[in-house]
Design goal:
- The protein has helices at 2-22, 32-46, 73-86, 88-91, 109-120; strands spanning 28-29, 53-54, 64-65, 92-94, 105-108, 137-138, 142-145, 154-164, 167-176, 185-196, 199-211.
- By secondary structure, the protein is an alpha+beta fold.
- It has a 7-stranded mixed beta sheet.
Length: 212
């Protein structure tokens, strides 16, 4: 009888362990420190106005599709303006050509490609984007463009995140960088865990905002 009870208890313990390991670890919660890092990650997109997009077309025609073409003009725009905002002193230079026909500033194309790879995990294909305002002219090494400032900047605050099937789902608010009480919309974003220069980060897959 004692052996039977022991066997039953053992089965219960093993069953509990199996249930724990079979439980959806995909629904993991993240710490406040991790949510803050996610907020910074997503703010790299929202500060440039990238708030409704996906990398792989999912059939939602309301979103800007970025991943179908590695020379997508919006990827080039992201790579240039991300550096203009965040790396101006180290990567943005005055145009070396007298008269500067295509803009007073330049950036080495390798930095544009690096930023696209870092945040989207896409290998950018360089080209000029002349059908835009402002245009971005590629001379084979540098992008020539004109700077611009003055527009309101919006950041993302991730309030909750879960991981499922290897992807991270983040939700939260879009807010005015100058007034945190100004929160015009909420968002849902998805990203994949990703290593960049040996460090754990994410590569964006999609972001969708909804007005309040």
């Amino acid at each position: 009888m004692k052996q039977i009870v022991t066997n039953i208890l053992l089965c219960l313990v093993l069953g509990l362990c199996s249930a724990l390991f079979a439980a959806p670890a995909h629904a993991a919660d993240f710490s406040q420190a991790q949510l803050k890092l996610m907020s910074t990650f997503l703010s790299n997109f929202t500060e440039l106005g990238f708030m409704d997009f996906d990398v792989k077309k999912d059939g939602n025609d309301d979103l800007l599709h970025l991943g179908d073409d590695p020379s997508n003009p919006d990827l080039i725009r992201f790579g240039i303006w991300h550096n203009y905002i965040n790396n101006a002193k180290s990567r943005i230079k005055p145009c070396p050509i007298k008269g500067c026909e295509h803009g007073s500033l330049v950036i080495d194309a390798k930095f544009v490609a690096e930023s696209v790879k870092k945040y989207f995990d896409i290998d950018l294909k360089h080209r000029s984007v002349d059908q835009s305002d402002p245009p971005y002219i590629f001379d084979g090494k540098l992008y020539h463009f004109e700077g611009a400032d003055g527009e309101a900047v919006y950041y993302a605050e991730v309030k909750q995140a879960t991981q499922e099937n290897g992807l991270v789902r983040m939700t939260g608010d879009i807010y005015n960088a100058e007034d945190k009480t100004d929160r015009p919309s909420t968002f849902v974003a998805t990203a994949k865990p990703y290593k960049w220069n040996g460090k754990d980060t994410w590569a964006i897959l999609s972001m969708k905002t909804t007005p309040r």
